[in-house]
Design goal:
2 copies of one chain form a homodimer.
Chain A: H1 25-33, H2 37-44, E1 49-50, H3 51-57, H4 63-75, E2 79-84, E3 90-95, H5 97-132
Antiparallel strand pairs in A: 1-3, 2-3
Chain B binds a DNA duplex (20 and 20 nucleotides) through residues 34-36, 50-52, 55, 60-68, 83, 86-91.
Chain lengths: 134, 134
DNA sequence: CGGAATCCAGCGCGATACTG
DNA sequence: CAGTATCGCGCTGGATTCCG
């Protein structure tokens, strides 16, 4: 039980990296945790998109955040950016194989959260109710 | 291709919730995305822990953040908090079944990121190098 | 069209001090 | 031991402006 190096059914193996723990999942979760990355992945998983198309598909996103989000995805090799030297400029974004792989992982999380959504909501209401009466 | 409602191998199904998209994954990723939640899950997946034990196991966490993190996990029903009315007070935390389920999901992400860590690092270096020369 | 640059508000989080 | 309360900084992300 004290063994932190078990298989898939075991623990998560805590890991003390220097100055920022988590062995690299941290970087991934930093991206997935931000406001738009998952939505961009979702939209791109439906096919190649131009900048404008992404923006229209993601109501509320600012130009700045869309740029930052796709840039970071491109930097990590999740998205490929293609510039067509037309006038006006035309740029398309599409998932790479790695991006598709990540998206499928994310989908598992999405499915899991969908499965447990009602339970979570109930737990929260219960907790808040108990707190108010205390 | 335009179908956003495919099966597991398909897209992520973008979803326009009101005022905050993502259909509930958002709330989950908000937690997983913060600095300490995954680390706490990791530690608790190794067994029941007292407040102090968690704090010692998570170098750098402040009392405040540990409290907030376990509170939110408790609120969502991922962690059970037990108070023993001894003097001084003694409180233990342990994963619930739901918390264990979530932790296993997280583990998949951890495994995935471990698998692709080197590729990501390489992609970033490549991207940054290209940027500097441009 | 597809950005980059700048300014600014919110809040996540750390540090510190106090409590049952 | 296991918290709660308060303050303050940094970073994320929104709004706006300008550019090729």
């Amino acid at each position: 039980m004290g063994d932190r190096h078990m298989g898939v059914t075991g623990s998560l193996e805590p890991c003390a990296d220097q100055d920022y723990p988590d062995c690299g999942v941290r970087h991934l979760l930093d991206r997935l945790g931000d406001r738009w990355t998952v939505l961009v992945l979702a939209e791109l998983s439906a096919g190649t998109r131009r900048f404008r198309e992404l923006q229209r598909a993601l109501p509320g996103i600012s130009q700045r955040m869309l740029t930052l989000t796709v840039r970071r995805l491109e930097r990590d090799g999740f998205v490929e950016r293609t510039v067509y030297p037309s006038v006006p400029a035309q740029v398309t974004y599409e998932l790479t194989a790695r991006g598709g792989s990540l998206t499928r992982q994310v989908r598992h999380l999405v499915d899991w959260s969908a499965e447990h959504k009602d339970d979570l909501t109930a737990s929260r209401r219960e907790y808040d109710a108990r707190r108010r009466n205390a």
